[in-house]
Amino acid sequence: MTALPVDDRLAMRALRLPPGLARTHAEAAALREEIATRLDCRVLTWPWPDGGGIRICGQIYNLPAEYERLAVGPRSLLDGR
Hints:
The protein is of the alpha+beta class. The chain has two helices and four strands. The chain has helices at 25-39, 64-78, and strands at 2-3, 12-16, 44-46, 53-57. A four-stranded antiparallel sheet has the order 1-2-4-3.
């Protein structure tokens, strides 16, 4: 994944997904639901023709374990796609 520009005043990070992922609304929604089901984390995904994006938003109600799962979990979901 490739990081998009960041603003340190925001509690979120947006990343471009590898080419070929989340190219359509249906693919982006399916990936978002797979992350929710398998990692028990909520993220925003959006479509883009060459490969969509993912946004992770940090808030006070998030638990450290959620960030730990998001640090390694998406890679395991994306490998082999």
